[in-house]
Amino acid sequence: MLSQPFSLRFFDSDRRREYIPDFLVATAKSTWLIDVRLAHLVKELDVAVFAATGRVAAAAGWRSGVVDAVEALTRGRRPRTDPLGLEEQLLAAAVGPRRSGS
Hints:
About 30% of the residues lie in helices and about 30% in strands. By secondary structure, the protein is α+β, with helices and mostly antiparallel strands.
């Protein structure tokens, strides 16, 4: 999995645009070019970007898709557990004094 794998340059009508897809994921069976967005924040300009990303992916023989960030984060959410018993120690370290720099 590569985060922000490349910069995509394309024309949308007469306007030159540049966009960086979120992830390139290669598995044994396929390669995916994936964007992650909050579905309710997708705008008309985003649709053109996703279409261009899809065309690039298809030309390379990849698949493409847009994942709703909320759905991706909440799907399969498991109850929070502390199987190693480290919660108190981690919280104490996080609350304690912090040094910046080296």
